[in-house]
Amino acid sequence: MPVWLLSILTGIYVSFFGFIPPLGDDVRSHLHDTVIDGQPFEASIALDIMMMHVDVWEFADVDDVEFPEANWRTIESDPAQFRGDPFVMRGTLQRRDIAPLGRSSWEAWVLSDVDEPGQLAVLLLPIDSLEISDQSAEPFQAGQTVSTLTRFYGMIEVPSERPGQLMHLPLFVGAFPQSWAAPKPASAATNSPSSAVFIMMVVLALSAFVALRVFIWKGKRRASALPTWLHYDDDDANNVDEDTENLPEEPADALQVLSTRAGIRVADED
């Protein structure tokens, strides 16, 4: 299919069906047949097709599009498997180059991975999409973390800042970058439902333990305030049984014996 016809058809699709058109089977087939990973970063028909495809995208917020997040290491391990696939690309802007490959309406950004700063990638962006995305007075600057809708193109070879060395980096083509702040890790102790239930159970257990201790303490206070003669143990009961054994059958005689044992003199009856 001619490139000009592909551009027209893509534009028609965007106008009627949505802001991110799918990549046709013929385009995917062309990418798989012609793109060779690890080649120098140069202009090619396949790259032109990808850039024209992205150039007609309508503005879309990253949060409104269900693209998977790009895992650079996974993509690098098997670039042919992911060629042409859509991704949300997040990274820290390291450098902006104007007019890459002589395309005055495009920019090339070098991004570093948010989680692995040593991992780098190249992102091609149409300048028109930057003007739409950048609603603030300040343009995108080095050190800023951005999130962008992209498609993966392939692995390219670019010169390193160190003389005589080359780097192999993933190349993405995308549009509409937006500032992005990495979410702060939530505290498990304050946000986990199971943690909240556990804390509540501990509080209830401690409250019950304190209430029980107070009840026992008050009971001991009441007991200690009672007359001591209400308190006797088993030994006292055994002593009472022993004192009442071997008494005379006559009540008067039994009283006399008990009085004598207790050291009490009982008056004789007249």
Question: Care to describe what's here?
Answer:
The chain is α/β, with parallel strands linked by helices and 270 residues long. The protein has two domains: 3-179, Nucleic acid-binding proteins (OB fold (Dihydrolipoamide Acetyltransferase, E2P), Beta Barrel), CATH 2.40.50; 188-262, no CATH class. The protein contains ten helices and six strands. It has helices spanning 3-17, 25-34, 45-55, 72-77, 79-82, 127-133, 188-191, 193-225, 234-243, 251-262, and strands spanning 39-40, 86-98, 106-113, 120-126, 145-159, 166-179. Helix 1 (3-17) packs parallel to helix 3. It is rod-shaped and about 135 Å long.
Q: Which outline best applies?
A: rod-shaped
| Range of helix content | 40-55%
Under the CATH scheme, the architecture of the largest domain is: Beta Barrel
Average pLDDT number: 78
Write out the CATH superfamily name of the largest domain.
Nucleic acid-binding proteins
CATH topology group of the largest domain:
OB fold (Dihydrolipoamide Acetyltransferase, E2P)
Count of separate DSSP helical elements: 10
Note the gap between the termini: 146 Å
Taken in chain order, the helices and strands follow as HHEHHHEEEHEEHHHH
The biggest beta sheet reads: 5 strands, mixed, barrel
Query: What is the CATH C-level name of the largest domain?
Result: Mainly Beta
Oligomeric state of the chains? single chain
Radius of gyration: 45 Å
